[in-house]
Amino acid sequence: MNKTYLFAGASSLMAIKTAELMQTQGHHIIGLSTKEKSYDYDTFFKVENYETINLPAITDNIDGLVYFPGTINLKPFHRLTTPEFRIDYETNSLGAVNCIQTYLPNLKKSTKASIVLISSVAVQMGMPFHASIAMSKGALEGLTKALAAELAPIIRVNAVAPSLTSTPLAERFTNTPDKLEASEKRNPLKKVGKAEEIAQSISFLLTDQSAWITGQILAVDGGMGTLKL
């Protein structure tokens, strides 16, 4: 059965690769982005931000929602400012809250809806220079579990927690052969993730393939968060 899915942060490479995958399966994808349209979504809205504004009204039933916006602000803790912590928290967590609250009535119209949030391996690992991102994504993981309990059994809520993935957001960590090699060596599977691999995981959590999974943080990280070699 063809379904309708809403992607916030639709200009991200992960969102585009997930949309490509799900459109080949016949699904209708609605994109929201703070940037101009860069991919052929079935329906598209440009928004100013996700945290503080009224998002576009949508009358359709929504069978799934993915919140893609994120930040990678890596600094020593003593150099992080309160405004930087606030920006990371608003982008990663409060934006998700506003988006879910706005479209919760649409999700409740579906007989089997699913929400997928994007966390980070840094929440579980404890990594230097990741204080701000780990804090904001940690809040997102807490939101995932709380909403999974509150919205069951109608709406499932899960999160994907990637390690370093080859996307424009992470380009500065992989944009030279030396940087790429160093990143690959740190990973148990000796590779940097691909957006297509994250897309496969998101698609799985959105569809009935994962019909008995909720409240979970799915690590898609090459073993980074659990293995020490």
Q: Can you describe what's shown?
A:
- This protein is an alpha/beta fold and 229 residues long.
- The protein has one domain (4-220): Rossmann fold.
- The chain contains six helices and nine strands; from the N terminus they run E-H-E-E-E-H-E-H-H-E-E-H-E-H-E.
- The chain has helices spanning 13-24, 82-108, 122-125, 131-151, 177-186, 195-206, and strands at 4-8, 28-33, 43-46, 64-67, 113-118, 155-162, 165-166, 193-194, 217-220.
- The strands form two sheets. The chain has a seven-stranded parallel β-sheet, sandwiched between helices.
- The termini are far apart.
- The model has no long low-confidence stretch (mean pLDDT 95).
Question: Can you describe this structure in just a few lines?
Answer:
This protein has 229 residues and is of the alpha/beta class.
Return the average pLDDT rounded to an integer: 95
Uncertain parts:
none
Number of strands: 9
| Shape designation | globular
In the residues, how many domains can be counted?
1
Rounded to the nearest angstrom, the radius of gyration is 17 Å
Oligomeric state of the chains in view:
single chain
| Biggest beta-sheet profile | 7 strands, parallel
What CATH first level would be assigned?
A: Alpha Beta
Beta-strand fraction estimate: 15-25%
Major sheet: arrangement of strands: 3-2-1-4-5-6-9
